[in-house]
């Protein structure tokens, strides 16, 4: 019991660090916009536009984190998860997402959302992500783009059993996804080829 609590605490700390890291950029931009208001040579509408854009980006990221890591992801319908990540990618303008209705429950929808988010990390220059489900239930998230690849440390935690003490804020999401796959009754596989990566759940 004590060991389980220690593991949970490590994961909470790392996921919190990851969320804070990903929010620093847009939140900092909101602050920068506020500081620009009233300065000579800077129109207030320009500063407000920066604040609005950055505020929306922060809100989109928070929504994804809420669905991916929070309890809400176990009860929100899959369409809402799909729409949230699609809107985030559309605003970013670097990644296209094809995720049609594949007939899965919220728990598996949350799993796919995390798979899509990890696949996005493998596309440093943007690209295309596609979600498919085969008749026997296998779910595949394919990502293709220039220099598409998972970082070796992230690939390792998705493929292998890793102690939580070995994780850091960058790798904790891959660890979380692997364990989420086990909790939903399946297993996660990782494939990589030149310019293509795939996460497979079956």
TrEMBL record:
InterPro entries: ChpT_C, HATPase_C_sf
Keyword Transport recorded: no
Protein name from the UniProt record: Histidine phosphotransferase ChpT
Keywords: Transferase
Keyword Transferase in record: yes
Pfam families in the cross-refs: HPTransfase (PF10090)
Superkingdom classification of source: Bacteria
Domain Histidine phosphotransferase ChpT C-terminal as annotated: residue spans: 84-194
GO molecular function: transferase activity
């Amino acid at each position: 019991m004590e060991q389980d609590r220690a593991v949970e605490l490590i994961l909470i700390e790392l996921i919190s660090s990851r969320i804070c890291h990903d929010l620093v950029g847009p939140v900092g931009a909101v602050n920068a916009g506020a500081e620009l208001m009233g300065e000579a040579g800077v129109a207030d509408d320009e500063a407000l536009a920066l604040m609005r854009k950055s505020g929306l980006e922060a809100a989109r990221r928070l929504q994804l984190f809420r669905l991916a890591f929070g309890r809400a992801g176990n009860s929100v319908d899959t369409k809402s998860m799909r729409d949230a990540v699609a809107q985030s990618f559309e605003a970013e303008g670097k990644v296209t997402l094809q995720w049609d209705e594949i007939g899965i429950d919220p728990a598996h929808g949350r799993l796919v959302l995390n798979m899509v988010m990890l696949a996005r990390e493998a596309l440093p220059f943007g690209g295309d992500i596609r979600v498919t489900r085969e008749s026997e239930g296998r779910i595949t998230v394919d990502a293709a783009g220039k220099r598409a690849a998972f970082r070796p440390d992230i690939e390792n935690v998705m493929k292998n059993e890793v102690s939580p003490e070995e994780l850091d804020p960058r790798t904790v999401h891959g660890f979380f996804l692997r364990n989420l796959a086990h909790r939903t009754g399946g297993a996660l596989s990782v494939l990589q080829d030149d310019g293509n990566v795939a996460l497979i759940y079956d």
